């Protein structure tokens, strides 16, 4: 290529960049801490959405602020650019696959990570303020980030403001000493700080601070459950959505936090001390990469439950079972839901053995004894086709999904319905015709909720049918955010769905009929399985663990049992004698 041609191509390329840059539209908004500049993107043909990426909602949790409650961000002068995605919070290097499955190629992380992203639709000014959805990302409280998916499609389609954010994960967010000096739950407190920021600043963006919905997926669904019953979250939201997770799940609370802290401190190189402040100071001197990566060495993984919320007497005051009976509920209306195949893993090539109690316990890492595991195996064993290995894999997937996700999510809906009439339940049952496997696994509904069939996604091919389902799902969701009642808009009239209660158990079933997205009312989702996990199995476990208080009671119980049996036998003997006597008299009279 000649020198002239190289110069010409280079200048043309730079000119293209300059033109594109000038063509991009920017907008400036105020916040309590300073002004920010965001960009404007056109979606769905002609709808414009303001995007603010990387707004600091708390001070960087670094140095002396590591393992401390979040503090307010510093103010700034001038205009701060918020046009680039912020780094994710530190997470295990080998676990980035969770982020990649949503946003391929993104691997930027830093301990300075407490930022939020906001998507604000530009709609006609009518003096009213927009409803707000605050999304809390999932990932076992170990991995993930707020902006795993763009949320401007939902904002534009639903005409609501959508917010997501990062919060501290893993050891940095959930390590605990179980004492006021080192309470833990820092990730939960980050979430509270984000909600407080929204409450105080959303009016600058045209949002209504009195109409905020908080929604969490997977482990964050459990986190949102704790927000519903935590005194620290009072007044920060009006509605709440629990999506494929629950604070009543076994994995949602950690009771062995001191043991975990001891084991973790050893591998990081900090001397175990009764003085938790001294231990915390030592942990503050380690690099965040050491703290994150050494989770594997401490054998905390793959047992995700080792870094869950703890009862700190502050944010989480008691066990969820008690809180959902006694605590004041934050919020006026609630929605919970799951996907059709929460436990589907596609592990048929990996798991080729027939199902047995020992193998199930090992594979699922359940916290039950062998007797209870045997009952679970019997319930899910593929009796109709016992030698079909694929059937065994599917049974194993169902056990995981029902035990870890569906059962607890259904359980928390039942608990909420016992306290209020404003509870709704849904099941996302739609499997795309373009998918390789016709399953609806954990988290698949997120792609439809945030409009990926319209914006596209590197990992999936979407059809017009997918877009139909996505449109209906977004419509139902945004109507709940606006009114506290899920509904579908038919022309201009809303069609409201039936509330969920413990008896009828009406729920919304999202699927497709004749190529069109539909939401139908159904009843009693997975009725047998829900009864098994939330009623039958707990009773069996309770009977196993019920102690006999004393030898006197044991022998007293035996004596009464024998007495009752003897009495019944005695009555049977008497009845037999009477019958024989009558028969004998009848025989005598006949002769």
Topology of this structure?
Elements: H1 3-23, E1 25-31, E2 34-43, E3 47-56, E4 79-81, H2 97-100, E5 115-121, E6 130-136, H3 152-158, E7 161-165, H4 170-174, H5 186-201, E8 207-217, H6 219-229, E9 239-243, H7 257-268, H8 276-285, H9 288-293, H10 320-326, E10 333-339, H11 357-364, H12 370-380, H13 389-417, E11 423-428, H14 444-449, H15 452-455, H16 464-483, E12 487-490, E13 493-496, E14 506-513, E15 516-523, H17 527-545, H18 551-590
Parallel strand pairs: 2-4, 6-7, 6-8, 8-9, 9-10, 10-11, 11-14
Antiparallel strand pairs: 1-2, 2-3, 3-5, 5-7, 12-13, 14-15
Helix pairs in contact: 11-12, 13-17
In short:
With about 600 residues, the protein is α/β, with parallel strands linked by helices.
Q: Using the 3D structure, state the CATH architecture of the largest domain.
A: 3-Layer(aba) Sandwich
Could you list the spans in which at least 5 consecutive residues all have pLDDT below 50?
Answer: 1-23, 550-555, 557-567
Shape designation: globular
**Total strand segments:** 15
Q: Classify the oligomer.
A: single chain
Q: Give the count of structural domains.
A: 2
Q: Give the termini distance in whole angstroms.
A: 131 Å
The whole-number mean of residue pLDDT values reads 87
Assigned CATH class of the largest domain: Alpha Beta
Most strands sheet: 13 strands, mixed
Structural class, from helix and strand content?
alpha/beta
CATH topology of the largest domain: Rossmann fold
If helices are DSSP runs of H or I spanning 4 or more residues, what is the number of helices?
Answer: 18
């Amino acid at each position: 290529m000649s020198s002239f041609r190289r110069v010409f191509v280079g200048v043309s390329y730079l000119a293209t960049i300059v033109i594109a840059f000038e063509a991009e539209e920017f907008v400036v908004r105020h916040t309590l801490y300073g002004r920010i500049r965001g960009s404007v993107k056109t979606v769905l043909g002609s709808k414009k959405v303001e995007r603010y990426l990387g707004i600091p909602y708390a001070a960087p949790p670094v140095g002396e602020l590591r393992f401390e409650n979040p503090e307010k961000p510093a103010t700034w002068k001038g205009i701060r650019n918020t046009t680039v995605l912020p780094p994710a919070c530190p997470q295990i290097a080998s676990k980035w696959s969770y982020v990649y499955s949503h946003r391929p190629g993104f691997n930027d992380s830093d301990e300075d990570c407490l930022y939020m992203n906001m998507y604000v639709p530009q709609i006609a000014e009518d003096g009213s303020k927009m409803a707000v959805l605050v999304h809390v990302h999932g990932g076992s409280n170990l991995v993930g980030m707020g902006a795993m998916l763009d949320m401007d499609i939902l904002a534009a389609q639903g005409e609501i403001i959508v917010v997501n954010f990062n919060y501290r994960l893993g050891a940095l967010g959930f390590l605990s000493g179980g004492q006021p000096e080192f309470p833990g739950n820092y990730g939960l407190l980050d979430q509270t700080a984000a909600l407080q920021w929204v409450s105080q600043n959303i009016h600058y963006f045209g949002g209504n601070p009195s109409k905020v919905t908080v929604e969490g997926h997977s482990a964050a669904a459990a986190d949102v459950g704790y927000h519903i019953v935590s005194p620290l979250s009072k007044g920060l939201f009006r509605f709440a959505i629990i999506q494929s997770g629950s604070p009543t799940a076994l994995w949602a609370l950690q009771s062995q936090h001191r043991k975990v802290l001891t084991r973790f401190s050893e591998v990081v190189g900090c001397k175990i001390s009764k003085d938790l402040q001294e231990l915390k100071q030592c942990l503050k001197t380690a690099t965040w990469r050491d703290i994150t990566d050494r989770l594997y060495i401490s054998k905390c993984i793959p047992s995700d439950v080792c870094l869950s919320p703890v009862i700190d007497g502050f944010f989480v005051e008691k066990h969820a079972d008690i809180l959902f009976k006694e605590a004041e509920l934050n919020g006026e209306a609630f929605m919970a839901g799951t996907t059709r195949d929460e436990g589907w893993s596609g592990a048929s090539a990996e798991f080729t053995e027939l199902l047995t109690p020992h193998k199930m316990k090992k594979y699922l890492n359940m916290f039950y004894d062998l007797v209870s595991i045997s009952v679970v195996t019997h319930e899910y064993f593929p009796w109709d086709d016992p030698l079909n290995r694929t059937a065994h894999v599917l049974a194993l997937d169902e056990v995981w999904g029902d035990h870890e996700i569906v059962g607890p999510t259904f359980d928390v809906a039942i608990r909420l319905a016992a306290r209020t009439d404003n509870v709704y339940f849904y099941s996302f049952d739609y499997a795309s015709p373009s998918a390789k496997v016709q399953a609806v696994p954990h988290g698949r509904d997120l792609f439809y909720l945030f409009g990926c069939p319209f914006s596209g996604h590197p990992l999936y091919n979407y059809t017009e049918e997918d877009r139909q389902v996505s449109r209906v799902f977004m419509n139902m969701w945004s109507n709940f955010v606006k009114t506290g009642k899920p509904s579908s808009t038919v022309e201009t009239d809303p069609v409201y769905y039936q509330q969920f209660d413990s008896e009828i158990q009406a729920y919304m079933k999202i699927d497709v009929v004749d190529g069109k997205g539909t939401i139908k009312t159904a009843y009693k989702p997975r009725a047998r399985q829900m009864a098994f996990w939330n009623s039958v199995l707990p009773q069996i476990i309770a009977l196993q663990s019920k102690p006999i208080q004393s030898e006197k009671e044991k022998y007293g119980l035996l004596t009464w049992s024998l007495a009752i049996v003897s009495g019944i036998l005695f009555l049977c003997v008497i009845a037999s004698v009477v019958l024989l006597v009558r028969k004998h008299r009848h025989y005598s009279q006949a002769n």
